[in-house]
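Hi support team,

I've been running sequence recovery on a batch of backbones for a student project. Most finish fine, but this one hangs at about 90% for roughly twenty minutes before it completes. I'm not sure whether the input is malformed or the queue is just slow. I've pasted the structure tokens below so you can try to reproduce it. Let me know if you need the job ID as well.

Thanks,
M.K.
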């Protein structure tokens, strides 16, 4: 049962408008970009419409639809975004998630364009609430490519960068999902600036372990991947041939050093 079962639909629509205003005001979206959903029941969600600035929505614009993507009620002027497929995939995969925010915040999206995941342990708050944030492979908007690309990642993460596109955050409620987007963009901005300053110091493994213990004690909802650890699939994707090449390079370097 949804944690939102006791809220009126009107209240939830107001909440979506508030978060829409916040993502637009903070510059997380341009023009009519971005979308916000809340799961209101086992088979029902509320979603923002397409073709509208998320900073200037009114309650009548919010659309109710089912998990098969069928619109239940709406004013005929507004349609759901094709990106809602990605939100529905999240709800299918994660029983615990009740809200999803998708935006294109400039710093997160820059990392997603550069192909650099935010997976280093640098800020305590980000380690606690986001963990390592991976990048989902690029998918064509409106197709099933994006839902398919996030599927394995959201099993272990409540925040995802979408390659050459933007970011997606998941929450046990809408404020929770929105706050993750704020923390994600804030971290991305700080990491970007630190890279420009020429040095990024990591929080040592022992300290990261303490933070993960703290996370458990604080009962922070959701799922995180521990930062600083390379995702398993990357290690597995290295072929024996590549390992041989790397090994030869390392041996050559050692020999070179011994000569000096
Ligand atoms: Zn988008």
């Amino acid at each position: 049962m949804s944690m939102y079962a006791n809220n009126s639909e009107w209240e939830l629509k107001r909440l979506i408008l508030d978060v829409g205003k916040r993502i637009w005001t903070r510059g997380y979206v341009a023009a009519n970009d971005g979308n916000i959903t809340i799961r209101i029941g086992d088979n029902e969600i509320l979603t923002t419409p397409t073709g509208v600035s998320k900073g200037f929505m009114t309650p009548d614009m919010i659309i109710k639809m089912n998990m098969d993507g069928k619109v239940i009620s709406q004013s005929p002027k507004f349609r759901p975004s094709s990106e809602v497929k990605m939100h529905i995939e999240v709800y299918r995969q994660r029983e615990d998630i009740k809200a999803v925010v998708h935006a294109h915040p400039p710093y997160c999206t820059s990392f997603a364009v550069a192909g650099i995941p935010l997976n280093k342990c640098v800020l305590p708050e980000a380690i606690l609430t986001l963990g390592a944030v991976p990048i989902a492979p690029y998918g064509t908007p409106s197709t099933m490519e994006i839902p398919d690309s996030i599927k394995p990642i959201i099993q272990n993460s409540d925040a995802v960068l979408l390659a050459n596109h933007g970011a997606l955050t998941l929450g046990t409620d809408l404020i929770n999902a929105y706050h993750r987007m704020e923390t994600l963009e804030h971290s991305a901005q700080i990491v970007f600036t630190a890279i420009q300053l020429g040095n990024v110091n990591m929080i040592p493994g022992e300290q990261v372990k303490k933070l993960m213990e703290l996370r458990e004690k604080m009962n922070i909802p959701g799922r995180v991947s521990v930062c600083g650890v390379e995702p398993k699939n990357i290690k597995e994707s290295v072929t024996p041939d590549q390992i041989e090449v790397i090994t030869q390079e390392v041996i050559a370097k050692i020999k070179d050093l011994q000569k000096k």
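--
Follow-up from support: It reproduced on our side and the slowdown came from queue contention, not your input. The beta strands are 35-39, 44-47, 63-66, 71-73, 99-103, 135-136, 159-162, 166-171. No action needed from you.
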